[in-house]
């Protein structure tokens, strides 16, 4: 048994040295102990584990996951506490700093259904669940006529050609969003989320005047949403040629194209965590559409839902299989979790779950029988729709096949896809050659040759005065190296150095100074005055309007405009020939090369997950290269990220919880 605080402190320091804990985790625990005058080693240990869980993006600490004999999966534990979950629950509730949700005065730590929360996160989780369930149970806005869906039925039939052989889930998704104030439309890349939402917007705006806002978590994702909606509107217009041109034009003009970031929508207050819009100053809109919803973390979802006006509707679009948000929570995955089913082949699949009433209504609207999807108590299921057929990867079969095999963690299938020899897939094996005078990795060398060829394309445009900065940035964005890790030779830092060196050797760049023509930079913090945000990527290029052609950092903004900033004024940033997979979320590139580590540490292995590999693959539109070793690729593909949270249970349990 850990009997003294001193022995625990030694243990915490050891864990910190092994990087199993951050200094913040240790300080949090010690501060909690001081604040609540509680020196019990058990209390300090639990606070440490809670903080470590929150730093690892979990929303809470499930007590049943604590293994006292090895709490942080370290090599040699000296921690010898031994308690069952029931004993631990009793011990924890004896501390003043811990309470249950039904206590008269809530303590800073809340213990609910076997999960320990910081009070703030408990509040976020309950509120998000309540908001979502309330929206899911509310009918869509402004229904006036005796059969409010009469017009919608006609329009739905015009917009979707009825397919007798197969269910058209895009049509069913559109109908879902017509009937409920919450619609969650999910699916992998190219499954038609934007196409569906464009048709829905056409349908809604041709019936009534609505204030609609389109948003995404990052500037890049917002810019991509704008582009996709514009392209989708053009495709739709060409499909609807039977509609008189004037009417078609005026209907199309009603569909918004501009997308903003979530931060811009909510109104950032400089140097504050608060936004201008919140519960008491709600947004002014009728319909909010959030793309790339998998990137929205729990606190942000809480803030968005709180700022939503009482009668507004919400549509979440995203891919539930992608990496979850950078901060705590996995809101989209939790929302979708109730649809998960085990398939006969052992893989995971999804199945819609509707109430009888909703299945009947959707059937009437779409003419598809939905009795097979009726569930007893679907809670939020009436608002969900999944698109499973990718229209994007038909021509580029290899990428789609690999993404699917990884997503299903199907190792034999993954091996088979790599062995098929698809022209759009390239495997580079880490192969170290060591001789007394020489150390090289042939895989890395091949990657560097590829990067010189690929990045050479935009670098060669820089001196051509006929080519605009926007065109050069577009060319740069065709190719990107994504790293699974930040640190090390095969992390972002090492690969950036290696690529810079190769480009310099071939004379494509002259990196004598910090800022040189062609250097790509990624911003690492928000600068509201400059309008630059964490994750924004730009290029250092000669300013084509100044005579001296002095160097400026050029960024394409969410509205497509070009922002120029003096390099010396840039907020913290780094070179970006290579970036992390996390930072690439919401972006797409024609060619993606994923770099995996050779010998990941124990802590690094935890980060190499199926979601990470899947996200990297699905960033590629036409070509995907992987530098790795088969063993690490397979290990990563079979490691599912588990984010501890009580949200899934709150959304899908039979009796919806209310927040205390
Ligand atoms: N029902 C359909 N039949 C044929 N092609 C379709 C259909 N739906 C979408 N597509 C095509 O598939 C491509 C991808 O569609 P869309 O952009 O709507 O997908 P998405 O899910 O939004 O993709 P992403 O996740 O990449 O943003 C587009 O070229 C679109 O024209």
TrEMBL record:
<keyword id="KW-0238">DNA-binding</keyword>
<comment type="similarity">
    <text>Belongs to the RecD family.</text>
</comment>
<keyword id="KW-0269">Exonuclease</keyword>
<dbReference type="GO" id="GO:0005524">
    <property type="term" value="F:ATP binding"/>
</dbReference>
<keyword id="KW-0234">DNA repair</keyword>
<keyword id="KW-0227">DNA damage</keyword>
<keyword id="KW-0067">ATP-binding</keyword>
<dbReference type="GO" id="GO:0043139">
    <property type="term" value="F:5'-3' DNA helicase activity"/>
</dbReference>
<keyword id="KW-0378">Hydrolase</keyword>
<keyword id="KW-0547">Nucleotide-binding</keyword>
<keyword id="KW-0413">Isomerase</keyword>
<dbReference type="GO" id="GO:0000724">
    <property type="term" value="P:double-strand break repair via homologous recombination"/>
</dbReference>
<dbReference type="InterPro" id="IPR006344">
    <property type="entry name" value="RecD"/>
</dbReference>
<keyword id="KW-0540">Nuclease</keyword>
<dbReference type="GO" id="GO:0016887">
    <property type="term" value="F:ATP hydrolysis activity"/>
</dbReference>
<protein>
    <recommendedName>
        <fullName>RecBCD enzyme subunit RecD</fullName>
        <ecNumber>5.6.2.3</ecNumber>
    </recommendedName>
</protein>
<feature type="domain" description="AAA+ ATPase">
    <location>
        <begin position="179"/>
        <end position="347"/>
    </location>
</feature>
<dbReference type="InterPro" id="IPR041851">
    <property type="entry name" value="RecD_N_sf"/>
</dbReference>
<dbReference type="GO" id="GO:0008854">
    <property type="term" value="F:exodeoxyribonuclease V activity"/>
</dbReference>
<dbReference type="InterPro" id="IPR050534">
    <property type="entry name" value="Coronavir_polyprotein_1ab"/>
</dbReference>
<dbReference type="Pfam" id="PF21185">
    <property type="entry name" value="RecD_N"/>
</dbReference>
<comment type="subunit">
    <text>Heterotrimer of RecB, RecC and RecD. All subunits contribute to DNA-binding.</text>
</comment>
<keyword id="KW-0347">Helicase</keyword>
<dbReference type="Pfam" id="PF13538">
    <property type="entry name" value="UvrD_C_2"/>
</dbReference>
<dbReference type="InterPro" id="IPR049550">
    <property type="entry name" value="RecD_N"/>
</dbReference>
<comment type="function">
    <text>A helicase/nuclease that prepares dsDNA breaks (DSB) for recombinational DNA repair. Binds to DSBs and unwinds DNA via a highly rapid and processive ATP-dependent bidirectional helicase activity. Unwinds dsDNA until it encounters a Chi (crossover hotspot instigator) sequence from the 3' direction. Cuts ssDNA a few nucleotides 3' to the Chi site. The properties and activities of the enzyme are changed at Chi. The Chi-altered holoenzyme produces a long 3'-ssDNA overhang and facilitates RecA-binding to the ssDNA for homologous DNA recombination and repair.</text>
</comment>
<dbReference type="InterPro" id="IPR027785">
    <property type="entry name" value="UvrD-like_helicase_C"/>
</dbReference>
<dbReference type="InterPro" id="IPR027417">
    <property type="entry name" value="P-loop_NTPase"/>
</dbReference>
<dbReference type="GO" id="GO:0017116">
    <property type="term" value="F:single-stranded DNA helicase activity"/>
</dbReference>
<dbReference type="GO" id="GO:0009338">
    <property type="term" value="C:exodeoxyribonuclease V complex"/>
</dbReference>
<dbReference type="Pfam" id="PF13245">
    <property type="entry name" value="AAA_19"/>
</dbReference>
<dbReference type="GO" id="GO:0003677">
    <property type="term" value="F:DNA binding"/>
</dbReference>
<feature type="binding site">
    <location>
        <begin position="187"/>
        <end position="194"/>
    </location>
    <ligand>
        <name>ATP</name>
    </ligand>
</feature>
<dbReference type="InterPro" id="IPR003593">
    <property type="entry name" value="AAA+_ATPase"/>
</dbReference>
